[in-house]
């Protein structure tokens, strides 16, 4: 079941209505059943891994809470890590590493190739494993008491609005809200509906329509001229942003309708003036997870410069690998690591702090520079392999390249411009908060535009969210 489907449009209000009608003591059962049903709609077989991860981490946390011996607690931490990341490796990375090994064996004419395994990547596995493992680490470090109620813990792992693509929530933030008696509040329902509508608009109208142009180009990038390559590079930047931002917005809105507040995952990232600021505004729940559970354990910034640079590089490289089992993702992450390190070094040498600069001209230049840099790196993210990425990059740097062109329809240009204006307006706020302060006429005019756009510009095909593949 995906958010941009008729099934979800029916499923969500049914769950919300039942949630408020049921006595408080039964609500967790409703949400847990709804969450498992939501996940089972993808593939019944996927539930085995989800249940396995839930049970293993529930037991490991209980055992760590029981023992005060550091070595025994560490043993259960390793059991959790080995189990969770072992599943993740098997289903997501095994064939990738075997392919790389086989390539090396063939290159050096050594031995026979290692066979692949035929597995489907379970939807959301990277997200829920990171979420549940963060809980185990918090229990190990003494920052969180182990949850004794299995149902409450299972609900934390599987809560349907954020199960398959985040935001990746911490136990201390999400679990207490799921165990709180929420009374019906019109404000929460209204703001939740506003966010769901806005999220569906930027996904189904902006992202899905941009996808048509981007997919056409990437079927064979060599066929198109240089101007089109640049155009598609820019369009993909907004496609992936509106796609993932749309998902996160629907997730936040769905939870808010039940009184649950999920963390914001995006804060106008393309208005960032530096790579560092971009990663403070893009996929915030993942960035903070890597900060707290990888960067800080490696030593963070409380180490000498060379070790700090190493830590940063490792974090970004692992982040790239998290996104997908392909060398394009690994290099994508490594490039960000290098750029972040170089940027910090230059800023230190020239004593520059972009946040303190107030010149609109300079700030505009920095935003444009950063956006183009991020867009160039997105080429690796979108390309099927390094060979295709090379073709796109060659097309970008050859202004004399002759080929086909892709022309945007004027309706899409208008709606895309509307989205850009809204995104700029929401620099320091969120759509539901911003629109609540508008005059009634303006609010309903915007609602009408969003609803009519979703109806008019949504095709017969449901495009899955890009981040579902991770």
Layout of helices and strands, plus pairs?
Blueprint: H1 6-21, H2 24-40, H3 47-66, H4 70-107, H5 125-140, H6 150-158, H7 171-178, H8 186-218, H9 226-256, H10 275-281, H11 284-295, H12 305-323, H13 327-350, H14 360-382, H15 386-397, H16 410-425, H17 431-436, H18 440-457
Helix pairs in contact: 1-2, 2-6, 3-4, 3-5, 3-6, 4-5, 6-7, 8-9, 8-16, 8-18, 9-14, 9-15, 11-12, 12-13, 13-14, 14-15
In short:
The protein is an all-alpha fold and 470 residues long. The chain has 18 helices and no strands.
Give an overview in words.
- The protein has 18 helices and no strands.
- It is mainly α.
- The longest helix is centred in the first third of the chain and has 38 residues.
Can you give the mean pLDDT? 91
Largest sheet: none
Q: How far is the N terminus from the C terminus? A: 16 Å
Order of helices and strands: HHHHHHHHHHHHHHHHHH
List keywords for this structure.
single chain, 470 residues, mainly alpha, 2 domains
